[in-house]
Q: What sequence folds into this?
């Protein structure tokens, strides 16, 4: 196992064991729920927007290590971003998990490059992201992994 692969596994394990921004955000003005009916993963994303910028973000839910670590990492990446920047970050993340290509710049998002080898896990990795993007739209409803082409 390469040192880089080991590092990436450690990033995922760390975010799963010590999730960042976990819990309901009392000041949220946008909320969305994500559901992966294939494996049972659930993820709620709470946002507090100030204008078009994500001032605060958190998540809660349950699921596998990939879904929980991805949601945790997502919150660290999206805080302070605009809706447009969040959509771009998701596009970059989606490219990483579906192709296995690592970004040119060093990024914790690259830790999920190995997910592409396990197609069923792509939905686990993207669940929180889909919920966050729905919350940004301001339409509080459940999004499911079945309604996205991952």
A:
């Amino acid at each position: 196992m390469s040192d880089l692969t080991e590092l990436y596994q450690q990033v995922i394990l760390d975010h799963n064991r010590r999730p960042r921004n976990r819990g309901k955000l009392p000041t949220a003005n946008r909320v969305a729920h994500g559901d992966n009916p294939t494996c049972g993963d659930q993820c709620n994303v709470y946002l507090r927007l100030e204008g078009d910028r994500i001032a605060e973000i958190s998540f809660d839910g349950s699921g596998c290590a990939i879904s929980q670590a991805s949601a945790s990492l997502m919150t660290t990446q999206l805080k302070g971003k605009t809706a447009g920047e969040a959509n771009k970050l998701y596009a970059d993340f989606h490219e990483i998990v579906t192709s296995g290509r690592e970004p040119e710049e060093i990024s914790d998002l690259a830790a999920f490059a190995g997910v592409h080898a396990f197609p069923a896990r792509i939905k686990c990795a993207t669940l929180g992201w889909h919920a966050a993007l729905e919350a940004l739209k301001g339409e509080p409803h459940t999004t499911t992994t079945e309604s996205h082409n991952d």
